[in-house]
Amino acid sequence: MLIASKLPPEHVDKTFFNSGRAAFSFLVHHIQPKKVYLPAFTCWSLVSALEDRFPHLPVEYYSVGNDLNSHYPHFVDQGELLVFIHYFGKENTCALPESSGTILEDISHSYASVINHVGDYVFGSYRKLLKVGDGGFINSYFNPIYEESKKLDTWLRYEAKDWRDIREAENMLDRDLKIADISSQSLAIILTANYDLIRHKRQVNDKFLTENIKVGEPLIVYKDHECPLIHNRIMNTKEERDSLRSFLAERGIFTSIHWPTHKAVKKSKADITGALWLEEHIISIPVSHDYNLNDMEYIAECVNQWG
Known about the structure:
This protein is α/β, with parallel strands linked by helices. The chain folds into 2 domains: 15-144 and 182-191, 3-Layer(aba) Sandwich (Aspartate Aminotransferase, domain 2); 195-306, Aspartate Aminotransferase, domain 1, CATH 3.90.1150. Helix content is 36%, strand content 17%. An 8-stranded mixed β-sheet has the order 1-10-9-8-6-2-3-4, with helices on one face. A hairpin with a 5-residue loop joins β3 (59-64) and β4. α6 runs parallel beside α10 (293-306). The chain starts with 14 loop residues before the first strand and ends with a helix. The model has no long low-confidence stretch (mean pLDDT 96).
């Protein structure tokens, strides 16, 4: 037994990064897989991170239906890595494949959902759910030597005056991905956030839109333990969706599309029918906990006016 005034520091079972894609890149480097399986329906950040950091690593895409059900490979061999996603806060209930490799669980959308984690490693981004300048994590302890970075994209987000600044910050991160630490401002927000309240307010907002919008159909009906990331509405045609987006933008309601299909996915041999269908039919409406029912009433009123 040693008694001294200087002791080794304590640590928690989590590792913080400046972005979710940095956390993902760190894990890929740590695992050193010989192949990666990604869902065909995914945001560009995971695909771009692999292209940027691991250009010679084989990537195979598995199909995702327009019901968000994933069709995994039958088996993940030793040395292979599979990534699966809890889409938009909905718990992924698709049975994972048998594996002697590694399973990565992306909970960027479902950080405030109460779900049982089943991946060998769990990672994600905080910026999907919270108003922070940066932030990614792995739910395991590592002691990384972070790369040197001025984190100008984070600086720009905190200095942002409008959406053009935010968009440029995203472009900066895409152009120069660094595996760096999280900022103190972001960490303070993350550690003090009331996730039960966040989940409740988002559930209330999503439920209101589900019950009061008369156009299209909701993609997801959330359960009590799930925290909606956004309200995804399925429209009959791409033309209707695009018309509604323009109509809402003129009234100060800005929506998004999840997701434009990455060119690498389009070039693959995977069945991307579901991803392409979702890309053409989804309109994503904000239900952030920063908004109240008055905001949701305004959204519903405007959507129904279009209809």
